[in-house]
TrEMBL record:
One of its GO terms (cellular component) is cytosol. To bacterial alkanal monooxygenase alpha and beta chains. Pfam families: Bac_luciferase. PANTHER family: LUCIFERASE-LIKE MONOOXYGENASE. Residues 15-304 form the Luciferase-like domain. It comes from Streptomyces vietnamensis. This is Luciferase. GO terms for molecular function: oxidoreductase activity, acting on paired donors, with incorporation or reduction of molecular oxygen.
Length: 333
């Protein structure tokens, strides 16, 4: 038999806050998880941006990235992503220019157009935008600050100007795919919670891609949920915490709750359909089961890389999930 080379695996982290626990624990676990997944051989470690939720501590994303990069040595660290409508592009250029100056060649900047929060918090962020309609203009402005410029430039991002800072476009629809294709940038699909337009978005991205100085050919990263355990039963139980997280979101306030033995006792049929639709790209089970599922995902989408979210109420189970996946992903013939 011939040895197959699998696509790279990366990590998406939301700094989940366990219900009844403090953000301190979540942020400490994020750093520990980054160290561990670097040792397991993952390519990237990305942190999301969310605001005004007691289920996630990933609000000050750039600060967390700095802590993670300082605590690791080789793994690329980045934003998955910065929700650009919440920020002045100039400030993002300065922040990530500073990060890239501290950690040359290791910082990624993923950009999304959703606010990542509710309308009240959007107003508190003091940003005015029309549902992200000006996202392409914001991306262009930000990238302009990062390009090398002469001394005659009126406004300069220092640090930021001319740094080695790869930019990625995040999206869950054809909007982000079209932008990434037009600008010749890598595209990351958020199929871990919005899988409905995955195939359509990737098809559009590849068919309309324009080569650029940043990227010669399309590069697509697909995000997916994966929970790996020693038994199918335990993996399904662990996964119930993520299912409850989306269920409580639909009910009005997202919470990260302990796992349960039978999730069907916690929701009605309509709620189950909504949650299962959002979590359709989830792979749960033993190492062999999850590897086969992710192999099928790669074959179906042609993904160049997978971004894995593996959430578990118990942090040791979370570490074990990433460890088992990394091992089964590389040890194949």
């Amino acid at each position: 038999m011939t040895t197959r080379t699998p696509v790279p695996l990366s990590v998406l982290d939301l700094a989940p806050i366990r219900d009844g626990h403090a953000p301190t624990e979540a942020l400490r676990n994020t750093v520990e998880l980054a160290r561990a997944t670097e040792a397991f051989g993952y390519r990237r470690f990305w942190i999301s941006e969310h605001h005004n939720t007691r289920a996630m501590a990933s609000s000050a994303t750039a600060i967390i990235i700095g802590q993670v990069a300082a605590a690791t040595e080789r793994i690329s660290v980045g934003a998955g992503g910065i929700m650009l409508p919440n920020h002045a592009p100039y400030v993002v250029a300065e922040q990530f220019g500073t990060l890239a100056t501290y950690h040359p060649g290791r910082i990624d900047l993923g950009l999304g157009r959703a606010p990542g929060t509710d309308p009240w918090t959007t107003r508190a962020l003091r940003r005015q935008h029309a549902s992200g309609a000006d996202f392409p203009e914001q991306v262009a402005e930000l990238r302009d600050y990062l390009t090398p410029g002469g001394t005659d430039r009126r406004v300069r991002a220092i640090p930021g100007e001319g740094v080695d800072l790869p930019v990625y476009v995040l999206g869950s629809s054809t909007f982000g795919a079209a932008l990434a294709a037009r600008e010749g940038l890598p595209f990351v699909h958020a199929s871990h919670f919005a899988p409905q337009q995955l195939d359509e978005a990737l098809t559009l991205y590849r068919s309309s891609f324009q080569p650029s100085a940043a990227l010669a050919k399309p590069y697509a990263i697909v995000a997916a949920n994966a929970v790996v355990a020693d038994t199918e039963t335990e993996a399904v139980r662990i996964f119930s915490s993520l299912q409850q997280k989306f269920l409580t979101h639909f009910r009005g306030e997202m919470r990260f709750l302990p796992p349960v033995d039978d999730i069907d006792t916690f929701w009605n049929r309509q709620e189950a359909q909504m949650v299962n639709a959002m979590l359709a790209e989830s792979y749960v089970g033993t190492p062999d089961t999850v590897r086969r599922g992710l192999d099928d995902l790669v074959a179906r989408t042609g993904a160049d890389e997978l971004m894995i979210l593996s959430e578990a109420w118990d942090f040791d189970a979370r570490l074990r999930s990433y460890e088992l996946l990394a091992k089964t992903w590389t040890e194949r013939t």
